[in-house]
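Quick review question:
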């Protein structure tokens, strides 16, 4: 089995933000994308990176591109959840998790 290189430039704050936006923990995310919880915990603690395959699964789960998670800046919610992203009653829509 080939050894996969780990990407160190992934911004864990963006993964944490997405998890908070979906109302889930990073451990729950790890389970959803078939990743060991310990791998996610080590990544979030800054001890290791993730493989491109792992990052792609996370990006697909949240409906985002992989580049979103490589941006070094924190998420600016007003740029992600714009006015156009609101319901008719000016509420942020409830996002359903992928099946």
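Suggested answer, residue by residue:
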């Amino acid at each position: 089995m080939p050894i996969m290189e780990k990407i160190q430039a992934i911004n864990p704050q963006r993964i944490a933000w997405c998890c908070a936006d979906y109302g889930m923990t990073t451990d729950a995310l790890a389970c959803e994308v078939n990743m060991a919880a310990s791998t996610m915990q080590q990544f979030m603690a800054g001890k290791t990176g993730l493989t491109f395959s792992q990052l792609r699964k996370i990006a697909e789960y949240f409906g985002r591109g992989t580049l979103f998670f490589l941006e070094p800046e924190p998420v600016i919610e007003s740029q992600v959840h714009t006015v156009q992203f609101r319901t008719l009653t000016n509420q942020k829509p409830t996002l359903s998790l992928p099946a």
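Why it works: Residues 6-85 form a domain with the 434 Repressor (Amino-terminal Domain) fold (CATH 1.10.260.40). The mean pLDDT is 83.
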